[in-house]
Amino acid sequence: ISSRMVLAGVTSWMSYASTLRTSSDSDLQNVLEELNGTLKSKSFLCGTSNVSLADLDVYFALREKFSDDDLVSTVGANANFERWFDQVQHVATDYSCGDAPSMIQKFTKKQNGPVFFYGDEPNFSEICAATARAVAETSSAKTSLVAKSKTVKSAEGVKSNAPPSSGGNELTDEQKAAAAEKRAKKAAEKAAKKKAGAEKGKGKGAAPAGSGELNIGALDIRVGLILKAWVHEEADKLYCEEVDLGEASGPRKIASGLRPFYTLDQMQNQRVLVLCNLKARNLAGFPSHGMVLCASNADHTSVQFAVPPSDAKIGERVVFTGYEDVAPEAENKV
């Protein structure tokens, strides 16, 4: 998975977490079914091999929104979600994030699934010993199966001009040479494909070599102007806005959780930056298409708009020094 796709996924899921915190009509069962379906084919929300910032943000949003008892009551119905929750809460504990330890004993999976050990189990040595025995038995069974397979092939006869060796299940020199040649040919084909793929991917918005940074060129960030803002009727933290982005289709409708930080008057005619290639979704019943970008302090007690330069034109796209100006990703990939 590419770094720009990971960054786009982190942005999208953190927006989801923000919506979850501010929505007044979030139904636990619907939320769990959605997450369970998403995690059916991946270990973590952004397709990464480890817990990301987005996983932690969604995890703590769930803990803030729903009670421990409500979450524990769902055990057994959403196996993919339970596996994800169990992994993330241990990571949160390892890094001393929040109050994760209070849930670990409660949230025990009732369905069979992947088992993870953290070294603090009371019978950890017994588990290790049992695991070692199982591995040894499996290895022995595989060795026996391979030997049996070679014997069967020898009995059936192998196409070769040379007579079989006296052992009955050993390959002849000609067979060994043919097998080595076949392996070398496959390795050469694989290397050629890998080289061709690397050359094809050069210059397509990749971050500069050695920069170690994620490419944010996949995000479609544009200058906008809030033409109209009003209070959401059902969500006590949301504003609804009409934002001019210079699009032929007219202003976009966007919901933002900014009521604790800005008055309604301060929202009117405000120049902003908008992430435009987020997939449209309903926020507390309001169809929101995009996200107004802001910055905050560490504890989120202060939030301020990301304000574009005064001479930037409405609809102008933000580009970043050191990254190629490539077409943004489609909405269904962000």
Automatic annotation (TrEMBL):
Comp. bias regions, Basic and acidic residues: 173-202
Cellular component GO terms held in the UniProt record: protein-containing complex
GO molecular function terms noted in the UniProt entry: tRNA binding
Location of the region described as Disordered in the Swiss-Prot/TrEMBL record: 153-209
Pfam families the UniProt entry points to: Arc1p_N_like, tRNA_bind
Domain spans labelled TRNA-binding: 215-319
The keyword RNA-binding appears for this protein: yes
Keywords: RNA-binding, tRNA-binding
InterPro entries, A to Z: Arc1-like_N, Glutathione-S-Trfase_C_sf, NA-bd_OB-fold, tRNA-bd_dom, Tyrosine-tRNA_ligase_regulator
Protein name listed in UniProt: tRNA-binding domain-containing protein
Species assigned in the record: Proboscia inermis
Lineage: Eukaryota, Sar, Stramenopiles, Ochrophyta, Bacillariophyta
